[in-house]
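Good morning,

Attaching, inline, the backbone tokens for the sequence recovery test we're adding to the shared suite. The designed sequence is right after.
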């Protein structure tokens, strides 16, 4: 159990967007902003609160499943595999939330609807750049590649006319905003 607490300290922040701890009970409450993923994962009794006991139990299960050689320790390879699985699960959850018609792919409209704070020009440009096979749909692999390349979003924000290329004016106005000078 002593080894689970440091593991919890390392992994729980990855699951949280933000939390509030009730000082009296030591539990996390949905009265404050909590990630739905966090609640789904750790609120094992479904009461809308996440206790330390629930977190420790879930992490103990994760530890046991990751400890493939059953030696009671996680090697770097086992730990890396566990984190890769967490990332894959999070990616799949994001994909599923964007794929509102459950077709197994994300249309441009679904992508745009899933990013309401971005302009349609920006989301259309990002979608076009991420759609590597140009089939007008994003696959799980294409979404993963997009997540691995946040520069696509910055590029799309600078591409004012949405043509998939930066003019000198678009580029220089971005340099002026960032304060960076190119020579």
């Amino acid at each position: 159990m002593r080894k689970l607490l440091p593991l919890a300290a390392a992994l729980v922040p990855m699951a949280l967007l933000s939390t509030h701890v009730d000082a009296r009970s030591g539990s996390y409450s949905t009265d404050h902003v909590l990630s739905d993923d966090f609640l789904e994962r750790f609120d094992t009794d479904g009461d809308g609160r996440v206790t330390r006991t629930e977190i420790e139990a879930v992490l103990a299960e994760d530890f046991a499943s990751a400890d493939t050689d059953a030696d009671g320790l996680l090697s770097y390879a086992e730990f890396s595999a566990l984190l890769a699985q967490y990332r894959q699960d999070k990616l799949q959850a994001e994909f599923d939330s964007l794929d509102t018609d459950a077709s197994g792919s994300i249309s441009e409209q679904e992508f745009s609807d899933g990013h309401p704070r971005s302009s349609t020009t920006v989301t259309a440009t990002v979608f076009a750049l991420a759609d590597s096979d140009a089939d007008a749909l994003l696959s799980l692999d294409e979404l993963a590649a997009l997540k691995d390349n946040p520069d696509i979003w910055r590029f799309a924000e600078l591409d004012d006319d949405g043509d998939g290329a930066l003019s000198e004016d678009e580029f220089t106005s971005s340099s002026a905003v960032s304060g960076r000078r190119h020579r």
